[in-house]
Write a structure and sequence with these properties.
CATH class of the largest domain: Mainly Alpha
Number of strands: 10
Number of domains: 2
Order of helices and strands: HEEEEHEEHHEEEEHHHHHHHH
Structural class: alpha+beta
Largest sheet: 6 strands, mixed
Number of helices: 12
Strand order of the largest sheet: 1-5-6-4-3-2
Pfam families: Pkinase
Protein name: non-specific serine/threonine protein kinase
Distance between the termini: 40 Å
Radius of gyration: 21 Å
EC number: 2.7.11.1
Mean pLDDT: 92
Enzyme class: transferase
InterPro entries: CK2_alpha, Kinase-like_dom_sf, Prot_kinase_dom, Protein_kinase_ATP_BS, Ser/Thr_kinase_AS
Helix content: 25-40%
Amino acid sequence: MASSLKNNNNNNTLVPSVPRMYSEVLRNKPAIYWDYEQMKLKYGNHDDYELVRRLGRGKYSEVFGAVHVKTEAACVIKVLKAVKKKKIKREVKILQNLRDGPNIIKFFEVLKNPASEYTALAVELVHCVDHRTLYPTFGTSDIQYYMFRLLTALDYAHSHGIMHRDVKPHNVMIDPKRKILRLIDWGLAEFYHTCQDYNVKVASRYFKAPELLLDYVYYDYSIDMWSFGCMLAAIIFRREPFFQGADNNDQLVKIVKVLGIRNLRIYAKKYNIHVDPAVLESVERRQKRAWEDFVTKSNHDVATKVAIDLVDRLLLYDHSERLTAREALQHEYFLNVQPPSPDETSALEASTSNP
């Protein structure tokens, strides 16, 4: 494990930090739990599945709706393209470790077609509605219901020593008819080891935490909480995405125009983080804006004081000061949200069982 690293040719070294919660999770688990490089993949039979239609494609994968031939159960096949075996092992190991987690996509098995180089993952199918259509229809109770469930998924992952590292609307599947939420696509997820340096080229730009934009490699679970905060802000202020930069530097500028320059300087000094002088110059006099500035006639019904307070406690430069997922679940905003009953959970589990 690295203990220090130079940042952008700065003469000083970055100051590592440790999260308030779940920092020692992996110390109490055997290496077989987190050492994915040593695992041996066990493949299911790809002939057991019939592809029905293409659902989408990304940089590293194509996703298909499929049917398990013997049981006729619907599922999703995620075909991984040009992905290193190490990365495949990591995603599989993480999905296996989170298999029983609440509101986390259910993983069935790994598949490989002998005639091709591609590996595929068979996972649960969720009949979701596009977030651009769905989120604008949400009232406060809807936002509370689904954000509570997303936080529950994040807290479960974090409590198992896992950072998602790509929380965004496209990776949050919601079926409003059955009131189901699933956090999907764990391809960028990683195990958290105290004071380990990580690749900052993770998360999608609009949801990248400041530490990623500033090349701070000792990040932790709190990058997921920033991304969650961006999602929540976008929903309550009816502004999707909330921070929309043209590139990484511009993304940081967009953040500074809301959070102000003073706290960025304090944050950078605390962790010996180098900030591009050009960025500093472009926002030299920016002061923190009040969140109430974003309340309008079209969003005032959901951009309530308590909702804004939760956003304010999440969208902080200093990652060590952001609410953890567990703390966010206990925020006043979710005071009246009830976890699913055992009967409801059992019914949902039965309807999404392994094919």
